[in-house]
Amino acid sequence: MVDVAIVGVGLHPFGRYEGKSALEMGADAVRDALADAGAQWRDVGCAYAGSMEVTNPEAVVGLLGLTGIPARAVLNGCATGNTSLTMAAKAVESGEHDLAIAIGLDKHPRGAFAADPSVSGLPGWYGDAGLFLTTHFFGMKATRYLHDHGLTTATLAKVAAKNFRNGAANPKAWRRKAISEEEILNSPVLNHPLTQYMYCAPNEGAAAVLLCRADQAHKYTDKPVYLRGSQLRSRRLGAFELLSPSLPLETAPSPTVDASRAAYEQAGIGPEDVDIAQLQDTDAGSEVIHMAENGFCKDGEQESLLAQGQTEIGGKLPINTDGGLIANGEPVGASGLRQVYEIVTQLRGRAGDRQVPGGPKVGYTHLYGAPGTAAVAILST
Amino acid sequence: MAKRIPLAPGLFTWPAAEPALLGGRCGSCGHVAFPYREHCLACGKAEVAQVELPRRGRLWTFTTQRFRPPSPPYAGADTPETFVPFSVGYVELPGACRVEARLTEPDPDKLAIGQEMELTILPFGSTPEGDETVVFAFQPV
Fold this sequence. Notes:
The structure holds two protein chains of two kinds. Chain A is an alpha/beta fold. Helix content of chain A is 33%, strand content 20%. Chain A has helices at residues 22-37, 61-64, 80-93, 124-128, 134-149, 153-168, 181-186, 255-267, 284-293, 302-307, 324-328, 332-347; strands at residues 4-15, 46-50, 71-74, 99-107, 189-191, 194-195, 204-213, 225-234, 246-248, 276-278, 362-369, 373-380. In chain A, helix 3 (80-93) packs across helix 12. Chain A starts with a strand and ends with a strand. The termini of chain B are far apart. Chain B is 0% helix and 42% strand. In chain B, strand 2 and strand 3 (32-33) form a beta hairpin. The mean pLDDT of chain B is 95. Chain B has strands at residues 4-6, 22-26, 32-33, 48-52, 56-65, 86-92, 97-103, 116-126, 132-140.
């Protein structure tokens, strides 16, 4: 097994692009990643492309050059970006290819995700009855978590305000305006206790990550970032998860806890070693809960950590330094690779106005989504 | 005359003076789930018996639905103009499981984790044949 280095990252900023296809955005992100590494498309040995809306995202090779490489499509809901990253890394790790690329691209219609319950293995009546909404879960999980651990909605507003503020400092973010905690709390309640400005929104965009054998990384960059661990887990029976018509009385930890522990073990790195984290912030409550589920604090400690500004850029553990999903939106296939883009940019010290001080060395990315899938990647210099 | 029928067959006893949700209890491992399914999600065996679930339980968590859900799949007879906000929650049914359901109380300030809830059946929509459909929900006791 060979070590794997990330030698190039590319981003087509997330937003709304009328008249531009997801594949075109994906091709731009790949060109950006190749340019970052000084590599050529013809050097790439294999590709994994993820998308929710595009059935054949690997068709992006038709816009980049028909070199005959194995190009495959992947889809794991909100965790898709981690699957393409892991699959590309395994292709390098096994020695099959020297250079592999993970690509994510998507273009969602406006508004909350709407689909037929059968895509998640659920009965039709569940959708008929108005229960097939992922947003219900986020509201219900936040209600229970705030109740159990004595947290307030003011803390949720703090998280959203931080992410909008970080987005304002990120030239590639979608939402670039700081929003006050008061305005966030006073925006319409979408799903109690979550308000409109506490939620991310689906949008469009693409990202790409170029991976290389660690012993050849110097050919492409003087600042390689190494992939130390990458793990995905699906839900166990008893976990409180999205889109569950019933739950057993006996509970189990979320798949985030499982994926996180596995990734720490694989990396030989613990939460105390992490300098910067990107955590799935589908909504502000999710970020708060994911801080504990990923081992960065105990349940209930978030209120004081946030009051002390510890998750701000400049804090002890900066979280969602590029604005996260709240300021960037979520093109599902690309979202996880945007997280990797941000971690690599920060670890290389190239994040400009939002640069985490002190030379961060260890970065952490986390994804969570339907139907109860979580994924974690740990990177270091 | 139009009939009143459950939104889907096998969800709850109907017609009944005191309707109950129909879940499944595994004869091998005892795992309880709603709705009924042939294979047990805990042990995988096909020894699941249909059982009536308790009609009362305690609210485990909740949230609100302020706007009409995207349709399809939502199939209520209401329109964006006539939509009445509702809540959604999990009700913990003793000795059984936690069931996700619509809650009749739309105001989150009038709901609290731990409060007692009771099953109720509400008018919902209609079928292409002109029958009226009914859906299960929980109401504060």
